[in-house]
Amino acid sequence: MSWLYLVIAGVFEIVWAYAMKQSHGFTRLTPSIITIVAMLISFWLLAVAMRSIPLGTAYVIWTGIGAVGAFVVGIVFLAEPLNALRVLAAVLIVSGLVLMKFSSG
C-alpha cells in the first residue's frame, strides 16, 4: 500500500507544479488554492509512504514522478519544446527510478 501512496503523492506533485505555473506567481486565486491543497496532499501521502519505504527511495521516486510528469504536462498542455536531449533526460530519470525501486527490495 505504501507504494500506491507514493505514486499518488507523485501525481499530486505534478498537479501542484502545473497549478503553480497557472497561478502566475500566486496572483490568481483558484490555481493558488489548488497548488497549496495539492502540495499538502502530496506531502502527507509522501510522509505516509515513508513509514515503510526508506527515505532515499521514497524521495527519489516522488521527485522523479513529479519531474517526468511535469515534463510531459509541459509538452502536452503548455507547448513546451520537445527535442531529443529533453527526451533523453526524461528517459534517464525514469531509468533511475526503476533502478531505485529494484534496489529497495
Task: Please render the helix and strand layout as text.
Layout: H1 2-22, H2 29-49, H3 55-78, H4 84-103
Give an overview of the whole structure.
This protein is mainly alpha-helical. It has one domain. It contains 4 helices and no strands. The mean pLDDT is 94. Its main location: membrane.
Question: What tags apply to this protein structure?
Answer:
single chain, 105 residues, mainly alpha, 4 helices, 82% helix
Order of helices and strands: HHHH
Mean pLDDT: 94
- Coarse morphology: flat
Terminal CA distance: 15 Å
Radius of gyration, CA atoms, in whole angstroms: 15 Å
Helix residue percentage: over 70%
- Major β-sheet, in short? none
* Total DSSP E strands: 0
Number of separate helices:
4
What number of structural domains do the residues give? 1
User: Which segments are poorly predicted (pLDDT under 50) over 5 or more consecutive residues?
Assistant: none
